[in-house]
UniProtKB/TrEMBL annotation:
Secretion signal span: none
Domain AMP-binding enzyme C-terminal: 506-547
A GO CC term attached to the entry: endoplasmic reticulum
Protein's name according to its UniProt entry: Long chain acyl-CoA synthetase 2
InterPro entries: AMP-bd_C (IPR025110), AMP-dep_synth/lig_dom (IPR000873), ANL_N_sf (IPR042099)
Pfam families: AMP-binding, AMP-binding_C
AMP-dependent synthetase/ligase domain residues: 50-124, 250-454
GO biological process: cutin biosynthetic process; wax biosynthetic process
One MF annotation (Gene Ontology) recorded for this entry: long-chain fatty acid-CoA ligase activity
Amino acid sequence: MGDYVKRREGCQRRKPSQGRCTAAFMQGWASGHHPTNESVKKNPNNQMLGRREIKDGKAGAYTWLTYQQVYDATLKIGSAIRRRGVNPGDKCGIYGANCPEWIMAMEACIGQSITYVPLYDTLGNVIHVQFSQFIAELGFYLFIFTHLHTSRISFASNISIMKSIVSFGKVPDKQKETAEELGVACFSWEEFALLGDLDENLPEEEDRHLHDNVHQWHNGRTKGCHSNQRCFHGRSLVYGSTSSRDRQSAHIFDQIMETYCIYCGSSIGFWQGDIRFLIEDLIVLKPTIFCGVPRVYDRIYTGIMDKISASGALRKSLFQIAYNYKLRNLEKGLRQEEASPFFDKLVFDKIRQGFGGRVRLMLSGAAPLPKHIEEFLRVTCCCVLSQGYGLTESCSGCFTSIANVFPMMGTVGVPMTTIEARLESVPEMGYDALSSVPRGEICLRGSTLFSGYHKRPDLTAEVVVDGWFHTGDVGEWQPNGALKLIDRKKNIFKLSQGEYVAVESIESVYSRCPLITSIWVYGNSFESFLVAVVVPEKKALEEWAANNQEKGDFQSLCSNIKARKYILDELNGTAKTHNLRGFEMLRGVHLEPVPFGIDRDLVTPTFKLKRPQLLTYYKECIDQLYSEAKGTKA
């Protein structure tokens, strides 16, 4: 790839060369060849979509639909959509958990030049907000696919803008009656497919390119992104395929991965939808590529470390010897398979088997992966790991680290073939894009960027300036051309003594404390110190209680003053170990027994903290912490 650096107007810019592979794919898409159509021609009998068969309440083996079977079903669903009065350029909603029907609904819309609007089904009660604000504001919902038996759609407030509802499963009689009384037709997936005609013609190729926008739900808020289909499918080429589904299809990264899977003729297996059985699903499915967000990898890391700690002195010593040996070889430049084949079989194979035993590549995105976790996974999982960076507005990933290039650890890698990137100085935060170590806000330009926020030209104008999309993320160019994420432009505040706090950076440090699972650090310009809301590690807190003769369940322990002091001391010990400054230490913590959840609107679907919502939710706790720390009454 090209690695030139151009200096101008307080920014540093990196522009990659155009990949021949991507160019060929884009040419094929522009000429009207849909990736699904091409894959069916090449791989009609390949397994495409699979789910575990449930018998007597127990999950068995995966059952699969072939590419030809999925294609035929998709044509029928697309035909049925048209017969219900939805035409090219109209909008169709998809709201539900991951399943084969989700993919077929998406492909049916694409095949008929219908804009599909994915919505997260993980938002719980927030779905009422989505439908009352977002859908009503857009005023376009003509059709919706959903898991009707589990959805919380309020018919009374939204029924006027829906024409038909198709359930991925069976339609409960009561809900069907309610909908039909209000003039909305309800179908099960099987019933709806019978309305379609397998031999009905698709739209003419020239028409298919007139209506090629996708409305993508963005970070669980009422801000829809318009993404062109050409850039959407062109972007998919730069990713690897995946066989394990552990995230929402409503998320842009997930859609890109699935699109590339289909393009390559790969198999997509869906989990049961219960996090308790995810590892079991992995063992049965045996995926070759595993995708996860940092929170998932952090939980995996913690679980493995707990088992290692409990394995006895001899095994712990052997593990550490193997770990250090392989790490040194990786640092010397040896490839993953060359670094330590002996210890891979003797020591690390059990960890590999926990992912099914066949994973060749791990991908991480949505947030920076802590360096110690990335190092651990690279050493112990016997496969390469690539960390990437992207946004809904950039049609998912625009940076990725190169496999087996160990010096890229801790970075999100280099720009992909369809994007230009530059850093823009942020003087108020002390970031200079033209310094010897270039730091600044990440700005992007390229054919895969979104065309704007739906009906929000004001928001679009704020972030797109002279063709450059301003991400709000702060990066640092590395000497090898890779980019390191170091901050978030909006997530910085000043304490009363004038010190600036980059809160995400210090939260990353505190997250290394093994006694906690999540942390939200808070401060403002009216106070001189920081406080935090912490979700403790249940097992660790209960072990502390047993060793210190403290009684009570997990919830009551979180209210225990001694427990709070214990967690606070351990957190500040972690801070000192990693050289945080005095004003970055915590003066008080509130222990929260319930994880920050999407259902309470405290995190995004990719588990990023929603700071304004957290402050609103925990306002009384924060006030109490400051009062206690200052010795005053709340």
